[in-house]
Specification:
Layout: H1 8-26, E1 31-34, E2 39-42, E3 45-47, E4 51-55, E5 66-68, E6 73-77, H2 83-87, H3 89-97, E7 101-106, E8 111-117, E9 123-125, E10 134-135, E11 143-144, H4 157-191
Parallel strand pairs: 2-5, 6-7
Antiparallel strand pairs: 1-4, 2-3, 4-6, 7-8, 8-9, 10-11
Helix pairs in contact: 1-4
Length: 192
């Protein structure tokens, strides 16, 4: 409930996730991702998650200093001090409030846990696919390779967004480059 000091690795992971999720949703107008310090007010208490994602159609619940009700996705990056709370009190509060996806990231153990709200309003663990990638249900088309979180330095945002966005994202970036340097300039850049 109260802000706690965080490690550099915690901040690095949080910043990385903020950048890649923001980049993913930027051109699609599907929602907003908000970093701390920003509160989420639930009937179970007021919380300050490490990241929240809120769909565009629910942004009327976004107030000046807090979100009124549950986010669609909440990300918590654990620390030794928050480990029990993130898996206990927060887990239960987010589940009861209806947060659709709860991502737990443990830098100390280099582990991730992904939970999705079931039809019975209970969190069920989500599995990684055969290649070790997590696919979000809330952010359709968004996926994350958890190994990126443990790399030092973190992978470049542009590289990750190209990986996630695939050929559609590559086309967008090429069009933007062509607008900046012109068609001939783009051809010259590609030849270098």
């Amino acid at each position: 409930m109260i802000s706690r000091p965080t490690s550099y690795q915690h901040q690095e992971i949080s910043g990385f996730l903020y950048k890649i999720i923001s980049s993913y949703i930027e051109n699609q107008n599907i929602g907003i991702v908000v970093p701390p310090p920003f509160q989420m007010r639930l009937s179970q208490g007021t919380w300050e998650p490490d990241l929240i994602f809120l769909r565009a159609e629910q942004q009327s619940r976004l107030k000046e200093t807090y979100l009124d009700g549950p986010a669609n996705i909440v990300v918590e990056i654990t620390s030794p001090e928050s480990f029990a709370q993130d898996r206990g009190e927060r887990f239960c509060a987010y589940e009861e409030a209806g947060v659709q996806e709860y991502w737990l990231i443990d830098p100390l153990r280099q582990q991730t846990e992904w939970y999705r709200l079931s039809d019975q309003h209970r969190y069920l663990p989500a599995k990684l696919d055969a290649s070790g990638v997590y696919h979000s249900q809330v952010l359709a088309g968004f996926w994350l390779n958890p190994h990126w979180l443990w790399r030092s330095p973190m992978p470049a945002t542009e590289w990750v967004t190209l990986q996630i966005g695939g050929s559609a994202r590559a086309r967008e970036m090429l069009e933007a480059l062509r607008d900046i340097v012109g068609r001939d300039g783009l051809w010259q850049l590609m030849q270098e």
